């Protein structure tokens, strides 16, 4: 069944709970334990006299800005999913706040002292005057003087009117990073609070300098600066530090390169960053480039010996929240190899991974993180590569990385220039799937928890300011959350794997009889009594599917214990015989069942080995399953017996950061993650959320639910 919609607060509910006749009369409001995921700012702004608000025991991940509650004195947001309390600064009259049981740090708690001038207690603990004075002395006036001294002596003179916004943003980042490295304040336990204060102070200094430049107080020729700014197409809003959706690391040599030119182009290792987010998007559409189809190679011979062909090479912990080495909880959701921009059927040794607040690019040859992009308060769920013309020039192709997450936005990254150059609000809720059109490289399909699939046309970035145009072309409405999509332009078909099953939509939205809703439902064999610990599980929950040939699809349903291979043309032929109005229901007859784990854990993805007939999939206990599916590409009759994997790679025996990852015994092949810390004292089974294999087959990469990325390298001694 489709998931029930998230609860919503209405005017009627508020008046009923408060016995008030109008919202303006409400002074105390209890909205606890309602399962709320968001707050309607327009509704709350109609309660200017509200003084006491209880939002505890909900599912809030963010707090809206500018609610207009200027008289609010008591706030309870305990037992939610809030990771930051910066938005509480809007409540300047707040005296009491409860924030316990949220995923925040001690530094986040101390921020309230600076954000709220009248705060008296946090979680019932009174803020002592001596502690308040200490924090304001060390992280207030004293720290401001140190940051201002560094600004005046080394950085203020570097900001000039003739610079582009990208260069100024580059210098600002350099200034903030240098200040964090050079300036000491408070004990090491408060390093996060110090860094936050440094960034706040530094950003204010830069903003003030920008304002002076805009007014002509720092230069003799303000007109020229204004004209260049208009030519670049970058607004002051895009330049403001608070509006920048990125936090990209770089080296100390950036300043010199940036001063010389805002158009500096270097390799990935150069780490030169032209950091722009244009407010006004470009005007030209991308020219459509049709990539050449990948040529199929003979299926390799796979050994059933799990150690014969591959050996573990690296395990990385690169998605930790705030670089916390003890973070074994961040989920890493997706991984995908970078395509060769000149031969898209081939991949490089670089793999992109996403999870938590960060996106990482890893080099499988060295096992090192070559680039890392972070977005505070995000949680990235999906990532995809787009190979498009650079600046509308077909002869020069480049790779753009697209990532999406819980904010409902997708972000555009150009790794070659180390730049995170645009973001776009695509959905109202979390983005969970993305796919690029096979024939139109600038067309991106996105799926979301708001139960919509949307098509976007993303133009190539126009250099040097990285202006781009993002246009919505179409929208579809599946009956439940779309977790994966496949496109069949020749059949005018969009196939979506959803929580309530598999559904087909008309792909060509320009047809006169095009419909937003699904036209076909594909049903699979029923599994009797799918239960886990006595609880019923959705037997129609399809969390992944992939194309193993132009006609054959691999699909996985939660709780079925196998991966289905089925023939799409054969299934569609039966629809011609069915004459019904409205959506059709077609029963899928699998040509094969691939043996897999009996787990009920969802969101475990698989992929095809590019150019080969090999399917790779992780499982709930850290293993990698490899199937030879070559004999099923043309099969029409079903296979009688389940097909075992041709090869299986078991989780390696190792220790990570004091945490032992191992098998409990030779008989029980379940690898465990045992942490010495109290928060991770219980046995944890690492689940391989996603897996990818390079086009050459030299590298296999998997991402897990315990903040680890593992790599297997092909043993070159094996023929």
From TrEMBL:
GO biological process, one term: chromatin organization
Signal sequence interval, chain numbering: none
Molecular function terms, GO-annotated: chromatin binding
WD repeats: 424-459
The entry's keywords: Centromere, Chromatin regulator, Chromosome, Cytoplasm, Cytoskeleton, DNA replication, Kinetochore, Leucine-rich repeat, Nucleus, Repeat, Telomere, WD repeat
Domain of life, source organism: Eukaryota
SMART domains tied to this protein: WD40
Cellular localization per UniProt: Chromosome, Centromere, Kinetochore; Chromosome, Telomere; Cytoplasm, Cytoskeleton, Microtubule organizing center, Centrosome; Nucleus
Comp. bias intervals (Low complexity): 291-300, 671-681
Residue span, Leucine-rich repeat and WD repeat-containing protein 1 WD domain: 309-692
SUPFAM superfamilies, sorted: Outer arm dynein light chain 1, WD40 repeat-like
Region named Disordered: 216-268, 285-309, 662-681
Gene3D superfamilies noted in UniProt: Ribonuclease Inhibitor, YVTN repeat-like/Quinoprotein amine dehydrogenase
InterPro entries per record: Leu-rich_rpt, LRR_dom_sf, LRR_LRWD1_dom, LRWD1, WD40/YVTN_repeat-like_dom_sf, WD40_repeat_CS, WD40_repeat_dom_sf, WD40_rpt
A single GO cellular-component term on record: centrosome
Domain Leucine-rich repeat and WD repeat-containing protein 1 LRR as annotated: residue spans: 13-200
Family: Belongs to the LRWD1 family.
Name of the protein in its database record: Leucine-rich repeat and WD repeat-containing protein 1
Source species: Branchiostoma belcheri (Amphioxus)
């Amino acid at each position: 069944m489709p998931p029930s919609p998230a609860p919503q607060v209405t005017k009627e509910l508020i008046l009923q709970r408060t016995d008030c006749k109008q919202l303006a009369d409400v002074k105390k409001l209890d909205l606890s334990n309602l399962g709320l995921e968001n707050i309607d700012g327009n509704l709350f702004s109609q309660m200017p006299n509200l003084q006491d608000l209880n939002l505890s025991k909900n599912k809030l991940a963010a707090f809206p800005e500018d609610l207009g509650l200027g008289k609010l004195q008591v706030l309870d947001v305990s037992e939610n999913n809030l990771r930051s309390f910066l938005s509480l600064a809007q409540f300047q009259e707040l005296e009491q706040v409860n924030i316990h049981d949220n995923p925040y740090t001690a530094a986040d708690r101390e921020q309230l002292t600076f954000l709220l001038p009248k705060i008296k207690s946090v979680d019932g603990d009174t803020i002592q005057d001596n502690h308040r004075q200490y924090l304001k002395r060390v992280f207030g006036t004293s720290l401001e003087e140190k940051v201002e001294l560094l600004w005046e002596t080394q950085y203020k003179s570097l900001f000039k009117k003739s610079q582009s916004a990208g260069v100024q943003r580059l210098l600002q980042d350099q200034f903030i990073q240098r200040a964090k490295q050079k300036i000491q304040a408070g004990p090491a336990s408060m390093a996060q609070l110090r860094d936050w204060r440094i960034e706040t102070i530094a950003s204010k200094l830069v903003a003030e300098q920008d304002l002076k430049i805009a007014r002509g107080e720092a230069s003799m020729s303000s007109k020229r600066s204004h004209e260049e700014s208009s030519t670049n197409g970058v607004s002051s809003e895009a330049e403001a530090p608070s509006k920048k959706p990125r936090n990209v690391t770089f080296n100390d040599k950036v300043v010199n390169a940036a001063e010389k030119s805002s158009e500096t182009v270097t390799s990935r290792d150069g780490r030169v960053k032209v950091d722009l987010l244009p407010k006004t998007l470009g005007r030209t559409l991308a020219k459509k480039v049709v990539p050449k189809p990948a040529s199929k190679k003979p299926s390799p011979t796979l050994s059933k010996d799990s150690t014969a062909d591959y050996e573990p090479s690296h395990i990385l912990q690169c998605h930790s929240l705030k670089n916390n080495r003890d973070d074994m909880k961040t989920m890493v959701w997706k991984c995908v190899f970078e395509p060769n921009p000149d031969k898209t059927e081939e991949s490089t040794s670089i793999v992109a991974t996403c999870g938590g607040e960060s996106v990482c690019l890893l080099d499988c040859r060295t096992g090192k993180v070559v680039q890392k992009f972070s977005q505070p308060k995000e949680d990235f769920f999906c990532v995809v590569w787009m190979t498009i013309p650079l600046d509308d020039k077909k002869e020069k192709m480049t790779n753009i990385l697209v990532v999406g997450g819980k904010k409902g936005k997708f972000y555009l990254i150009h790794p070659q220039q180390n730049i995170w150059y645009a973001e776009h609000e695509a959905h109202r809720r979390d983005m969970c799937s993305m796919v690029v059109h096979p024939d139109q490289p600038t067309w991106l399909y996105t799926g979301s928890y708001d139960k919509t699939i949307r098509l976007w046309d993303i133009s190539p970035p126009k250099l040097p300011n990285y202006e781009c145009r993002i246009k919505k072309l179409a929208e579809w409405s599946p009956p439940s959350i779309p977790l994966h999509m496949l496109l069949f332009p020749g059949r005018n078909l969009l196939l979506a794997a959803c929580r309530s099953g598999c559904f087909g939509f008309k792909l060509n939205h320009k047809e006169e009889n095009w419909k937003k809703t699904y036209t076909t439902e594909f049903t699979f064999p029923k599994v009797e009594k799918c239960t886990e610990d006595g609880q019923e599980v959705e037997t129609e929950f399809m969390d992944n599917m992939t194309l193993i040939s132009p006609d054959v699809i691999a699909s996985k349903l939660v709780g079925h214990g196998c991966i289905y291979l089925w023939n799409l043309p054969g299934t569609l032929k039966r629809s011609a015989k069915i004459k019904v109005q409205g959506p059709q229901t077609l029963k899928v007859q699998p040509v094969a069942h691939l043996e897999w784990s009996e787990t009920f854990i969802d969101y475990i993805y698989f992929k095809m080995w590019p150019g080969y007939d090999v399917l790779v999939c992780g499982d709930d206990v850290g293993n990698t399953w490899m199937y030879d599916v070559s004999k099923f590409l043309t099969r029409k009759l079903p296979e009688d017996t389940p097909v075992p994997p041709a090869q299986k790679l078991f989780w390696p025996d190792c220790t990570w950061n004091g945490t032992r990852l191992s098998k409990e015994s030779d008989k029980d092949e379940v690898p465990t993650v045992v942490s010495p810390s109290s928060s991770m004292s219980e046995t944890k089974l690492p689940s391989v959320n996603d897996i990818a294999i390079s086009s050459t087959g030299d590298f296999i990469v998997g991402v897990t639910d315990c903040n680890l990325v593992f790599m297997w390298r092909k043993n070159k001694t094996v023929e």
